[in-house]
Specification:
The protein has about 210 residues and is mainly α. It has helices at about 5-15, 30-40, 45-60, 60-65, 70-75, 85-100, 110-115, 120-130, 140-150, 155-165, 175-185, 200-205. The longest helix has 19 residues, at about 85-100. The chain is elongated. About 40% of the residues are buried.
């Protein structure tokens, strides 16, 4: 099966399984989404959603966040892991938003990626989910599934992202990114995966895939 044909079939199957795609990270605006995505690095969305209500009760905007010390932020976000770095980045990016953008979150990848602690994946999530700009953030689930399904042979997220953008329609990127994540969590784990029990891998993945 050609890669484009396989992608089209996967697309239809994911749309049937997940017609609704709520953003997994609780947020109320671009700023709270940005902070939540930054906290989600090497942390589960569920844990982030447990922590952010406590953080946002203290500061849900850049002006209030910079009034907190880095140590105060760190104490709240400690359960998310990597708290020394994340707390410095949250404080630093909040100050930059005030200095450069009047406290607003910018809407382009380049502007977002220039903020402390904001990498390409985080920026892609924010432009996609907060501003509706087509993007294809690649997390561990998407990286794993794209390779299992034979849609990419890329050995890094940059190559996998480029390959996926080639085979899926641009207008589907934002929703597909979430649908693939949902599918990976429900049907296609990294460990203990049984190819023939998986609704997509059973026909899309090579026989030697586990």
């Amino acid at each position: 099966m050609k890669r484009a044909e396989k992608a089209s079939r996967i697309d239809a199957q994911l749309e049937a399984l997940y017609p609704e795609t709520p953003v997994p990270l609780d947020h109320t605006d671009p700023y709270t989404l940005l902070v939540a995505v930054l906290l989600s690095a090497q942390c589960t969305d569920a844990r982030v959603n447990q922590v952010t209500p406590h953080l946002f009760a203290k500061a849900d905007n850049p002006a209030d966040m910079v009034k907190l010390s880095v140590e105060q932020i760190r104490e709240v976000i400690r359960p998310c892991g990597l708290s020394p770095t994340k707390s410095k980045n949250i404080h630093g990016l909040s100050q930059q938003l005030l200095d450069l953008y009047g406290g607003a979150v910018p809407s382009t990848l380049d502007q977002l990626e220039a903020l402390p602690g904001v990498g390409h994946k985080t920026a892609s999530v924010v432009v996609a989910q907060a501003f509706g700009t087509p993007a294809f953030p690649v997390d561990t689930h998407i990286y794993r599934l794209a390779r299992r399904w034979g849609l990419s042979r890329g050995n890094n997220v940059t190559k996998v992202e480029a390959d996926l953008k080639k085979v899926f329609p641009r207008e589907r990127w934002n929703k597909l990114h979430l649908q693939i994540i949902f599918f990976g969590r429900e049907y296609c784990p990294a460990r203990g995966h049984v190819r023939d029990d998986c609704p997509i891998c059973s026909w899309a993945a090579p026989k030697n895939v586990t």
